[in-house]
Inverse folding.
């Protein structure tokens, strides 16, 4: 058996590949990133790109020591003479905030809107919609804590999925308050869970000391059972007046803009530096437990990384999950595009001429040529297989008088054009 790709990874394949499904069609991926680019750049976001691997410490501090990502899912990079000081990035935010601090981007007009897309790596249990190398589109805004920035961030995430054609998307919106509010909430959770310690999963026993809020995120059935039984009050009940006002403003702006959302008290992002707004984007096509994407405000992250105070907010969605949602809704993606013009020479001596013509046409239109001489029948068949719109045959006569007889592969229309007219071809 030939070598296979690693478990939990995918090849993104060209159109027409025999084993193609939507979530591995390279052109579908590009359609998502191009759509995101259009929407986000219209709103003033600039593209940023950071390394695929970063200092382990950045990831630990940036994602949080109590998260599953850091505790169980990090891919460590080893190379000769090194002892694993680098990590393949599991998400985009930490690297972007690091780049912002390291490169003095604070000097640019604030708030600074950035976006990126690319692969992320987590050593997860592989299942549908859960990969070890997956891809995200990521939007981050640095330098403002205004609720208007939060509203725009949520709205832009919805704009991207709407522009892609998705309809059945729900925004679940929450707030996790300010650090003091969370401290009060964590004390409440500790008091609530401590008498039931033995019923918590091992992970959650650990979470109880490190960061009790993460228990609410637990995937374990026994934990979920206990949560229901204890009727745990939501974080939203513990918001202080400032966080509550911020959350109210955010909802007001979203309503003004007709962005639908449900306030969902179960949304928790329990990291130290997360603050206030947190949300998820859900779609029934990818399953109730799996979000299409999520976002949150992280005003404490810059300080966590050793920088000054820089409020920030960001979101990411998984491209693979988005493609599954598009498939579930039957949204049609752009059709494969063949060449506009396919040129073939009828005899060997005219092959270089056909090639030169096609190369000239490539300056203006999608043009391909046959690398060897062909009979008319097989040239047309080849043009059709490649999805060409126009096929042109070149014999000695055409080469001598600078004209081309073209056939439209869809309508059958035939016409003779001069070489100079090729750039007007449609
Ligand atoms: P997170 O950074 O965990 O909030 O994830 C943001 C989004 O990335 C999720 O909502 C998913 O769409 C996607 N995502 C996260 N982990 C995976 C994974 N292992 N496989 C595929 N997509 C993922």
């Amino acid at each position: 058996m030939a070598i296979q790709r690693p478990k939990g990874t995918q090849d993104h394949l060209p159109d027409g590949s025999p084993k193609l499904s939507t979530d591995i069609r390279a052109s579908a991926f590009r359609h998502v990133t191009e759509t995101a680019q259009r929407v986000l750049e219209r709103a003033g976001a600039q593209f940023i790109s950071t390394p695929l691997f970063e200092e382990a410490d950045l990831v630990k501090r940036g994602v949080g020591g109590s998260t599953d990502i850091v505790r169980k899912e990090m891919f460590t990079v080893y190379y000769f003479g090194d002892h694993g000081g680098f990590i393949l990035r599991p998400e985009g935010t930490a690297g972007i905030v690091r780049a912002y601090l390291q490169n003095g981007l604070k000097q640019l007009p604030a708030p600074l809107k950035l976006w990126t897309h690319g692969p992320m790596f987590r050593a997860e249990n592989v299942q549908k919609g859960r990969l070890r190398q997956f891809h995200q589109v990521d939007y981050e805004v640095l330098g403002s804590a205004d609720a208007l920035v939060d509203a725009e961030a949520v709205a832009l995430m919805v704009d991207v999925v709407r522009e892609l054609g998705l309809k059945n998307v729900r925004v679940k919106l929450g707030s996790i308050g300010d650090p003091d509010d969370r401290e009060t909430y964590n004390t409440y959770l500790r008091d609530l869970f401590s008498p039931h310690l033995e019923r918590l999963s091992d992970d959650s026993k650990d979470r109880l000391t490190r960061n009790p809020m993460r228990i609410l995120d637990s995937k374990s059935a026994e934990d979920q059972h206990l949560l229901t039984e204890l009727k745990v009050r939501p974080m939203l009940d513990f918001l202080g007046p400032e966080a509550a006002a911020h959350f109210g403003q955010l909802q007001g702006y979203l309503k003004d803009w007709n962005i639908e959302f449900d306030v969902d008290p179960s949304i928790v992002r329990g990291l130290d530096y997360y603050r206030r707004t947190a949300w998820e984007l859900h779609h029934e096509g990818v399953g109730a437990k799996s979000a299409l994407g999520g976002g949150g405000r992280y005003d404490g992250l810059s300080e966590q990384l050793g920088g000054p105070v820089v409020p920030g907010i960001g979101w990411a969605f998984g491209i693979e999950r988005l493609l599954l949602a598009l498939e579930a809704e039957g949204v049609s993606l752009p059709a494969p595009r063949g060449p506009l013009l396919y040129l073939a020479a009828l005899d060997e001596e005219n092959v270089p001429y056909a090639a030169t013509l096609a190369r000239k046409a490539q300056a203006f239109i999608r043009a391909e040529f046959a690398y060897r001489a062909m009979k008319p029948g097989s040239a047309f068949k080849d043009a059709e297989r490649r999805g060409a719109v126009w096929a042109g045959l070149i014999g000695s006569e055409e080469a001598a008088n600078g004209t081309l007889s073209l056939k439209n592969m869809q309508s059958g229309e035939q016409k003779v054009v001069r070489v100079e007219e090729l750039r007007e071809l449609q």
Q: What stands out?
A: The first helix runs from residue 26 to 42. Residues 60 and 70 are 6 Å apart (CA to CA).
